[in-house]
Write the structure tokens for this entry.
Amino acid sequence: MNASLRAALVGAVVGLAQFVLLCMRGDNIGLLDLLMTVVLSSGLGFFLCWWGRLPRWWGVGLVGPAVIVAFLLAQLPLVGATETLDSGDWQMGLSLMGLGATAYLAAGGLSMPVHRRFRVMMVAGVAVAYLAVWSAQDVLADAARAHRLARSGVPLVAPTLPDYRLRSLEGVDGRLELGYEREDGIWQVDVTVKQVSRVSPKRACELAVPYDGLPEQAECRQVSPGAWLLPGDSQKIIFSWYGDALVRIESLTLGEKELISVLRTLHFVEAGELARLHED
């Protein structure tokens, strides 16, 4: 087998080993975990380069992990590498195998004694592939975000607010949290959607903890069928059902009628649509 192909195969096996190590690590994977995984798997890369009798195997074994680390660090200005890779188990496995294969292919082009033209072709090809991935960060980030939302199990319910931007999006612990702001940058509306609960909107309103503009003596009152308002001098909160989900809509600036209007625009959304609406 061609030495360059053997180098790429070594990288793919190293990427697979990295995937296994990350699976053992669990769900809370950070950049440090990724970098430590690269370090731990580099020993396997050294052995495979030697066992595969690659020319200047020690150079390939050193440069390959360095290329992987450089690629991961290059993701930071745009989007965390862990977010980009977090698009599902098999997608993450293929991503790491592809990263490993291309990194060790580039390492072979830089380290092994090959014809100069072939060296340039290998390194340039890998560079073009990495630039293509780098330029598609928004697409990759949206796909990863949609995957996390889909597997979180939270009800995907959102309002239609054409004059606002979705600047905060989080789906954790059976709860979807959305934060909207106006085009002028003023934070405007927060929407929280919870999974099926035995707590009624009225009871949720009564149990709400007063804070920032909500006096302790504020009393809940029904403002529409199934919707209850906790008023305040500035902060106002509405609780209501949407399907089987309990929805909480709050704002420091919107009035009662405006909050009710937001409530009436609620609708179910796909994870991909919600991810595309989010602005970092």
